[in-house]
Specification:
The protein has 403 residues and is α/β, with parallel strands linked by helices. It is 46% helix and 14% strand. The chain is built from 14 helices and 9 strands. Strands 1, 2, 3, 4, 5, 6, 7, 8 and 9 form a 9-stranded mixed beta sheet that branches. β2, α2 and β3 form a beta-alpha-beta unit. α8 crosses α11. It is globular.
């Protein structure tokens, strides 16, 4: 039987959730035929065995296995090569579809029949797992994960919102760029936007339709999502390298200016102390932020924005300076400059607003931060604030800003 839509699902270490997700596809309403192409990306658990043993009743399923973990881009490309349907949908292995999920995508494409139109469905947290304040933030006002909080049904959105958790596209459009997903992106960050950016040159238009709803079974804490933001920063550098015209948009150009900090690396006689102070500040910031994951307060969204921005920027710094001897000093100084300043202001304001803080005594914090700032870090910070940007922009240094 010819299928109308091929659903491509990269899978990695998801055996604990996969069965109910596959069963949810068995419960899809309607009779239109569809297929799932599941690609196990060298899972270290029994994901492949679970996939191989499952027998769907509502759809056909093809299982592929990668001998080495290659990331979601490579897995999707393998699925695209096997798909025979006129429509292709991309989903995650942590995405559980609502009963009318497939039917809604098919219906949307009947209405939007032009070959360049992709349908972006809605992704939300499921009602049967706890949704902490971080999860509410990253899909809400923060929009660090998804921007649905700002979307309007039926409106068009740009390449940045080619969310491969829930999007369908005509297969004819995908073939307009035969390079497909760029496998140089090892993480699930920007590999989808990069492909969409290239497809946009062939006319891609992304229409948001709230009817195809899916539930995201991926619990996050500040610890897990800060790692995600760091990797997103790394991948933003890769995206800017491939498409330099996006560097300003991705804030990579601004990060390059930090290279000026390396000019006074020669004054740094205590690099180990600087690194230890940076690690302490980062762990303290995570500890404070995690304290509020189940208790909201008026300053919480700003706290999440600042901390997640820090990890994004940390990834940018490591991506920009990975080939530079200045990488560590730039990163550690940025940590002291950014987190130290922010935490001082946050703690003072939280104290005045009577917001609980998971610290018995602020005195030790201020003493330790002052000690860090009064050593080499203070010299770096003062230099950067007073002359760093001017020197960098004037190119008054012997080294070349890394590309």
């Amino acid at each position: 039987m010819t299928t109308l839509i091929s659903i491509i699902m990269p899978c990695y270490n998801r055996v604990h959730d996969l069965r109910r997700i596959l069963e949810a596809y068995d419960q899809q309403v309607g009779s239109d035929p569809f297929e799932i192409i599941a690609i196990d990306d060298a899972s270290t658990d029994t994901t492949y065995e679970m996939l191989d043993s499952y027998r769907p009743s509502r759809y056909s399923m093809r299982i592929e296995h990668q001998s080495q973990n290659q990331g979601p881009a490579a897995a999707r490309n393998r699925g695209i090569a096997l798909a025979t349907s006129p429509l292709i949908m991309f989903v995650g292995d942590d995405i559980l579809p609502a009963p009318d999920f497939v039917l809604s995508h098919l219906s949307a494409h009947c209405y939007h029949a032009k070959p360049e139109i992709a349908i972006l469905g809605r992704v939300t947290w499921p009602p049967d797992i706890g949704c902490n304040t971080l999860m509410s933030h990253i899909d809400g006002v923060g929009a660090q994960q998804f921007s649905y909080n700002y979307f309007q049904n039926g409106q068009e959105y740009d390449f940045r919102h080619f969310y491969t958790a829930n999007i369908s596209v005509k297969s004819s459009l995908l073939q307009q760029d035969r390079d497909l997903f760029d496998t140089n992106f090892p993480y699930a960050a920007f590999e989808d936007a990069e492909f969409a950016y290239r497809l946009a040159k062939h006319g891609l238009k992304i229409i948001y339709d709230e009817r195809p709803t899916a539930f995201h079974y991926h619990y996050h804490t500040i610890w897990t999502f800060s790692t995600r933001q760091y990797r997103a920063g790394l991948m933003a550098c890769l995206l800017a390298k491939k498409h330099p015209e996006l560097a300003g948009f991705l804030r990579v150009t601004k990060t390059k200016y930090l290279f000026g900090l390396g000019l006074i690396q020669q004054f740094n006689q205590d690099a180990l102390s600087l690194a230890e102070s940076a690690t302490w500040l980062e762990e303290l910031a995570l500890h404070i932020t995690s304290f509020y994951e189940w208790s909201s307060h008026p300053m919480l969204d700003d706290l999440y924005i600042k901390i997640l921005e820090y990890f994004w920027r940390k990834g940018l710094i490591d991506g920009v300076f990975k080939a530079s001897s200045s990488q560590a000093i730039v990163r550690n100084t940025y940590t002291l400059y950014y987190l130290g300043d922010f935490l001082k202001h946050f703690l003072a304001k939280a104290d005045s607003e009577k917001i609980p803080i998971p610290m018995k005594d602020y005195h030790d914090f201020y003493l330790r931060l002052a000690a860090a700032e009064n050593s080499i870090a203070k010299q770096l910070l003062n230099w950067w604030q007073k002359t760093g940007y001017r020197l960098v922009k004037s190119k008054l240094y012997p080294e070349k800003i890394p590309s």
